[in-house]
Amino acid sequence: MSTVNLTKENFQQTVTTDGIVLVDWWADWCAPCRSFAPVYEKASTEHPDITFAKVDTEAEERLSAIAGISSIPTLMVFRDGVMVFSEPGALPGAALEKVITAVQELDMDEVRAKLGAAS
After folding, report:
1. Which NCBIfam families match (predicted)?
2. Where are the strands (E) in 16-104, listed by range?
3. Cα 55 off chain centre by
């Protein structure tokens, strides 16, 4: 499965859907972003049940600012509309697989309960 390009028009709709959505915040000039791209693409083919999306921080400066992106690449992961992971840095393939597995194993009722208690 190829990645979905996110813009300010489709970001909210994409990340609030049911299921898992990974978002790679990147830019053309960023060497770590370029090294992470093939790792991300490979994972997208190995996990067709997950949405893999990308945000070009140069083209989407306002969206990047709203999301608080200060370092790229940054990987965000949403599950059932809840952001459950956000970390800057290019991950190697094995680390990306660990993140995906951890997100798949989350008890979302527990996550929502903790979020409710925190607010």
Report:
1. thioredoxin
2. 20-26, 51-56, 74-79, 82-88
3. 9
Q: Classify residue 80 as left (phi > 0), alpha (psi -120 to 50) or beta.
A: left
- Helix-strand-coil split of the chain, %, nearest 5: 40, 25, 35
Options 6, 22, 23, 30, the catalytic residue: 30
- The answer to whether 30 is a known catalytic residue is yes
CB-side neighbour CA atoms (13 Å) of 89: 8
Q: Which helix (H) or strand (E) holds 5?
A: strand 4-5
Q: At 73, which amino acid appears?
A: P
What CATH superfamily is the domain 4-112? Glutaredoxin (3.40.30.10)
Distance CA 71, CA 89 (A): 8
| pLDDT tens digits, 95-109 | 999 999 999 999 999
Q: Annotated catalytic residue: which of 20, 33, 77, 90?
A: 33
Contacts of 72 (CB under 8 A, 6+ apart): 25, 26, 27, 30, 32, 33, 57, 88
